[in-house]
Design goal:
3 domains, Alpha-Beta Plaits, alpha+beta, 45% helix
């Protein structure tokens, strides 16, 4: 180790090149020792991890020095009645927020006692939106008309880059001489950003060649990736999924300690009116909380919680109770690729029965989307009930959040 540390100090060896000279585990250890010396901070706990660094250093993380451990709790069982996920599930939730797992657990109990959450996927489309420069407004119009008339040609170009993705839509938007082409793909069991980026570049090359447009960027921010955007609320991104359950009055009273009228009012004044008054894009209580915990546990890209938080929670009065639903317009996720193959994350996907590719392709990712939506529903039901009953602060104090 001393030899490599000296080379790092002298500049003869770069931190990022350690894996080229050493096995991955040794490279991580040397890099950590170097950072310890540079910062004067001992990192024994950061260096104690169970995951294998060989794949992680190739696919997931550059300049690795260790791993941060996030506590994982389970909530459930949660009865899900979807078209791809149909059964009872234990939700692995990675979080450091006391009360979150307990709250979701209570929501799971309410949903399961009510017969389960019915869940449906309404769209399955990952997007990328190249931006082109036109010579004039007239040229912009020519580009748009060409794209609209030659979709089959663009689909063929995209298809040549991937076995698992398929171009299913292309929508143009213009701002003067800027032309955006929002491309939509199915991506099987992958979240698919790398897949659609490569395919989009192939499509863009055809557009450039045939129209004289100049590609400025393969991502023009109309996708919209990892940023709050109305286009994702309206048009969706990733999986568009909704979950709902009819809660009877006695269950609302006995399990949730409130009543249907109070639930409806809290949701209306908080999630709908309050969010509108704030100019929010998400109309929900804390959808991001549950999505983040599931995403971190299951190897998803946590930055996509931004899109996931664009959720709408609705509560309709119903005879003898209330019907609670959540709609998630943009839920990018997958069960292959990214962090899903890291050992601990793969085990969490295994808890849900969706690790790896599904049969047929795409089945596992769709099942995961349905489970996440049902989990968000559980979280919304529990938090809104706590607020309706005036129990929110008490729960946080009891569970260490005071």
């Amino acid at each position: 180790m001393d030899e490599y540390l000296e080379k790092l100090r002298s500049g003869a060896l770069k931190l990022y090149a350690l894996e080229q000279a050493l096995p991955a585990a040794d490279a991580v250890a040397v890099r950590r020792a170097y950072i310890e010396a540079e910062t004067g901070t001992a990192l024994p706990t950061l260096g104690a991890f169970a995951i294998s660094p060989e794949r992680v250093t190739r696919r997931n993380c550059e300049n690795m020095i260790g791993a941060v451990q996030v506590p994982v709790g389970v909530a459930g069982p949660l009865r899900v009645r979807g078209e791809h996920a149909d059964g009872s599930y234990w939700l692995p939730l990675a979080t450091t927020e006391g009360a979150l797992v307990a709250s979701v657990n209570r929501g799971c109990s309410a949903i399961t006692r009510a017969g389960g959450a019915e869940v449906r996927i309404f769209a399955d489309r990952m997007t990328r939106a190249p931006v082109f420069a036109a010579r004039s407004v007239a040229h912009s119009a020519e580009i748009v008309r060409w794209v609209e008339a030659h979709f089959a040609e663009l689909r063929e170009a995209a298809g040549a880059t991937t076995r698992h993705g398929r171009l299913v839509g292309a929508t143009c938007s213009v701002a003067g001489t800027s032309v955006f082409v929002r491309l939509e793909f199915t991506t099987g069991d992958a979240m698919g950003m790398n897949m659609v980026t490569i395919a989009s570049e192939a499509v863009a090359a055809v557009v450039e060649r045939e129209t004289g447009a100049r590609l400025v960027s393969s991502s023009g921010n109309l996708c919209t990736d990892k940023k709050p955007a109305a286009v994702n609320v309206v048009s969706g991104r990733g999986r568009t999924v909704a979950a709902g359950v009819l809660l009877p009055d006695d269950l609302i009273r006995d399990v949730l300690k409130t009543d249907a009228a109070s639930l409806v009012e809290v949701n209306t004044r908080k999630n709908l009116v309050g969010s509108a008054r704030a100019g929010a894009l998400g109309f929900n209580a804390h959808a991001a909380n549950v999505i983040a915990a599931l995403f971190i546990a299951c190897g998803q890209d946590p930055a996509h919680v931004v899109e996931g938080s664009l959720a709408v929670t609705t509560i309709d009065p119903a005879p003898g109770g209330a019907y609670v639903a959540v709609t998630l317009p943009a839920l990018p996720l997958g069960t292959v690729g990214g962090g899903t193959a890291i050992e601990t994350q793969a085990e969490c996907l295994g808890i849900l029965g969706v690790a790896g590719g599904g049969d047929p392709p795409g089945e596992h990712a769709k099942a995961l989307a349905e489970i996440v939506a049902a989990g968000v529903l559980a979280g919304e039901i529990s938090l809104l009930s706590a607020q309706a009953a005036g129990h929110l602060a008490r729960a946080h104090v009891t569970l260490g959040r005071g």
